[in-house]
Write a structure and sequence with these properties.
By secondary structure, the chain is an alpha/beta fold. It has one domain: Rossmann fold (3-Layer(aba) Sandwich). About 40% of the residues lie in helices and about 25% in strands. It has seven helices and seven strands; from the N terminus they run ααβαβαββαβααββ. Helix 1 packs across helix 4. The model has no long low-confidence stretch (mean pLDDT about 90). This is Methyltransferase domain-containing protein.
Length: about 200
Amino acid sequence: MINTIVAAIYERLWRPVGVAAFGLYGLSAQKEREEAAERLRLRGNQQVLDVACGPGNFTNFFGSQLSGDGIAVGFDISRPMIAQAVRDNRSSHAAYVRGDARRLPFDDATFDAVCCYAALYLVPDPFVVVDEMLRVLAPGGRIAIMTSYGSEIAPIHAALSLGAKTIGVRIFDRSTFPAIFTAAGLVDIKQQTRGTAQYVSAHRL
């Protein structure tokens, strides 16, 4: 993801391959963005953080759902991805910051919505990243993630985990993120699985 070529082909080639690998056949990029915005309940003057934003396709869409002083901030550690995002997906409601998601450079309770799609299974310390996402989520805000999911059937889960490990990808089980959100005091926790992907969202009181 820190490669200039990957950044350039991400939406046209890399993402479609990923969609097939996750078993998300029939789910278009537009539909996935719309579902993410719905899970986050985006509107008006909200401050939104898109962690591991890549080339900014989700960030820009999130910004299009806002008005007034609302802004979607795309955050990524990859210079090529941020450069691509600034070229292709900057707008009056979308901006980009480069940095390490394990140490988000934002104050506590800054954002009304925080999102991380298709990245937690790639990063070195995913639970540190989630803790940081929760730290910057304001009261009344919503969080949404999309990440990997291993089958509840033990042999299939083991096979998926082994295959993922060989290519440097982590497989999460069904209970991990709902348990983290519950422990953090979040409510209205919703989870959906599709193929080898899981979508989890929650609300902070």
